[in-house]
């Protein structure tokens, strides 16, 4: 499935100043807040999200590529940041999938990075919102 949209929920959110956000800022245009069906889990230092068909939603931001010709390059940079193609012997923690995203009472298709490791012993972040999660975890 081809789409020029990107949904982010964690360190790729605007304002987090991650190295990868510089690619988002350069190659994508922020459309606004959006949600995706999924469950956010507390991993201790950061939350992760796994897909879920119904019930829970994750809040994040929806972006659209500025120049379609740069889409593959921009996504390759983000794939590298998320560790989709690790060095030999390193674990893969995320996968990228095109999913339905709710934005302004519409459903659009966007790429999202899902955590693909075991979360069975982790606490669910009920709000599904990274910013709320961080506010609650500041010492």
Could you name the ranges where pLDDT drops below 50 across 5 or more consecutive residues? Answer: none
State the CATH class: Alpha Beta
Shape: globular
Strand content: 35-45%
Overall number of structural domains: 1
Spatial extent as radius of gyration: 15 Å
Portion of residues within helices: 10-25%
Order of helices and strands: EHEEEHEEEH
The average pLDDT score comes to: 90
Largest β-sheet summary: 7 strands, antiparallel
CATH superfamily: Gamma-glutamyl cyclotransferase-like
In the CATH hierarchy, what is the architecture at level 2? Roll
Protein structure class: alpha+beta
Say how many strands there are.
7
CATH topology: Hypothetical upf0131 protein ytfp
For the termini, the CA-CA separation is: 42 Å
Folded structure, characterized:
By secondary structure, the protein is of the alpha+beta class. It has one domain: Hypothetical upf0131 protein ytfp, CATH 3.10.490.10. Helices cover 19% and strands 40% of the residues. Strands 1, 2, 3, 4, 5, 6 and 7 form a seven-stranded antiparallel sheet that branches. The termini are far apart. The model has no long low-confidence stretch (mean pLDDT 90).
Sum this structure up briefly.
The protein is of the alpha+beta class and 139 residues long. It has 3 helices and 7 strands; from the N terminus they run E-H-E-E-E-H-E-E-E-H.
